[in-house]
Amino acid sequence: MRFCGQCAAPLASVCAACGSANPPGNRFCGQCAAPLGPAASTPKFAAPENYTPRHLAEKILTARSALEGERKQVTVLFFWLEKAEAETAGLA
Predict the structure, then answer these.
(1) If residue 21 lies in a helix (H) or strand (E), which one and from where to where?
(2) Pick the residue with more confidence: 68 or 18?
(3) I need a surface site. Which of 25, 46, 63, 79 has the fewest CB within 10 A?
(4) C-alpha span between 26 and 38 (Å, rounded)
(5) 45-54, pLDDT tens digit by residue?
(6) How remote is the C-alpha of 85 from its chain's centroid?
(7) Which residues make beta-bridge pairs with 19?
(8) Distance of CA 31 to the CA centre of its chain
(9) 3-class SS of residue 12
(10) Distance between terminal CA atoms of the chain?
């Protein structure tokens, strides 16, 4: 139950890991950082078999040997978040 049955006020969430009370709307416990509620425990993405159309999956699997030797060049940019925050803090 998320709301009071008498006045409809939001109820505090109790952490299953440490028993600490948390304000309504928190997704993680303020004491131990454990996920709160069922939404945090469910996986964000389903298995590819659930959302890939059967005809597309068959096409990919039949062309697997042709795709195995294919190489593509990928450029990856890493940016250190702490450095970015420090630089932007100096601008303000």
Answers:
(1) strand 21-22
(2) 18
(3) 79
(4) 12
(5) 778 888 888 9
(6) 23
(7) none
(8) 20
(9) coil
(10) 44
25-29 contacts at long range (C-beta below 8 A, 24 or more positions apart): none
Residue 67 neighbours by CB under 8 Å, 6+ apart = 60
Domain boundaries, the chain: 1-43
User: In whole angstroms, what separates CA 91 from the centre of its chain?
Assistant: 31
Tokens of 14: 């109790």
pTM beyond 0.90, yes or no? no
HSE-CB of 40 using CA atoms within 13 angstroms = 12
Residue 17: phi and psi, rounded to 5, are: -80, -45
| DSSP sequence for 36-77 | -HHHHHS-SS--HHHHS-HHHHHHHHHTHHHHHT--------
Helix/strand number for the chain, H first, E second: 5, 2
The owner of tokens 């890939």 is: 52
**């925050």: which residue's tokens?**
85
Q: What is the rounded CA–CA span in Å between residue 33 and residue 31? A: 6
